[in-house]
Give the backbone structure.
Amino acid sequence: MLYDIFDLAIENEFCIRNPVKSIIITSDKPKNEKKSYTLAKSNLILKSANNGDKWGLCVYIALTMGLRRGEILGLKWSDIDLEEKTMHILRAVEPDTKGEPQDGELKSKDSNRILPFNNDVSLVLKDVQRKSDYVIAGNTKWGYTSIYGFDKGYKKYMKELTDKLELPYLSPHELRHTCGTVMREKGIDLYTISRFLGHSDSKITGSTYVHNDIEVLRKRLYP
């Protein structure tokens, strides 16, 4: 907050430098290690998820497109071009969403992005029975699924699926993280991953996937 205040002060010529620019906030709390599936385990989940079930479709979209939970819930059929194989991320449903989410209501301007998808994703989406303007149909007045409804349905579905496959349970955000991890495992550069995931700063991507960078190097150097 202070950083932004001083930046605004510089723009308005109240001061000439930002005194908090070099300050780094640190914490003694241990870092919360993000979990993710490997490429093989991710493919197993994708193969086993029932895309005819809306929770299975949520899992599929998170793993293949790397969308945030709110972005999945805010996705409309009008955002998807099956001919061009693109998906436009325009809005998100959040815990504090009142009424219908509007275009542009996203985490940051970089979250507004158009993503390409492959034939596999296209075939899955074509087979989905449309019950609402929203891809993940729900019981709200506007036809989308609320965060509360999502959390309840997702946890039950994902717990049953991972128990059946004997895999660890991952949260929706960890599925998004898996999408980036798998892309890195395939050798995709960090800038492309950053653009795909809608990170506001490529440094976020670099710090998040630095460990996976080492594993990618290991596989290339010692196959």
The chain has two domains: 1-30, 39-170. The chain is about 50% helix and 5% strand. Residues 115 and 196 are 7 Å apart (CA to CA).
